[in-house]
Model the fold of this input.
Amino acid sequence: MQTKELQFVHFRVLFNNNEKLIIMNKVEEKEIIDIAVEQLNRQTALGAEVYYFKRDFKNTTKEVDAQLQLPMAQMTIKIECKKWINKTNLSRLLTDINAHAVDVQTMLVTEYINPNIAEQLKELGFQFLDTAGKAFQPKGMKVVFMLLTHPELVNAPMRTIANTAEVALGTVKQVMDDLTYQGFIVQKSGTGKTVVNTKALLDKWLDAYPANMHSKLNQTLFATDNPEQLKAINTAEFDGYWGEELAAERYDHYLKAKDFLIYLEPERKQAFLNAARLRKPAVNEVPDYKVIVVEPPFEIKKIQGNLTGLAHPLLVYANLVISTDPRNVDAAKRLYDEYLS
Done:
């Protein structure tokens, strides 16, 4: 990929804190754009070239970040880069793009766009690129989960990683290449490969988790009229693991669980339902105490957590965050600090 600067800028002055932050953000955005366009050129024969713009600190008006030239297609496309895109900032971002898309097409470039937002962008006619590659697709998510929870696997044979993550050997190769390309796996002399920038990797995994892992699991809603009886069940008898609120309560002793989530293999489900005396909610009923029974993403022993009968803190953390309940989000932060940081 050829990268050109429209204007050469040599800063000779000291920057204030705001300007330093702007520069850091622009460097991050440039890296994201470079990776996304390089991947585009690897997958197509477009021969795309990127031109970057000078940032004028005196002018606070939002400008596009760069422009993409496609010589073979004789097209010029403006680039708007955003590190993170979610439902909260999407509307404002699209408004900004429309303001600068009067005379030329504009493409949104980011690290990761989840399927729901991708579909929304397609419906609205917006072009976009992301750098996620294979690592944060459904099968890749399983590999990344294993690398986050067992970082020593990074040096294991690919067949071992494939068996552990329960994916095809080819998927492991694609994911490892993608993570290396994104800077999450590095080769260190004398020690082999290492997973680095784990907080950023976890954040990207978490962003993709609702659409590309959680929604792919078989889940069934039940209700209980006796939550204390439910808590007293010995889940080891059913090879099950508590997740979400009850797991957070037992890991941290901070959250008081109101709703319940348990991971069970399909063949153990009915025995648990009978022992727990769970029932299906009536039509239009909103149970006081919900119980979600979930089939695990892997053979169930692989999600075992730090304490008996609890799922791995990473799964607990992910489900707490996506619940949007302020109590759970607060508990997730505590869980992260104690078990995942």
The mean pLDDT is 84. The first helix runs from residue 17 to 43. The chain is about 45% helix and 15% strand. Residues 120 and 126 are 9 Å apart (CA to CA).
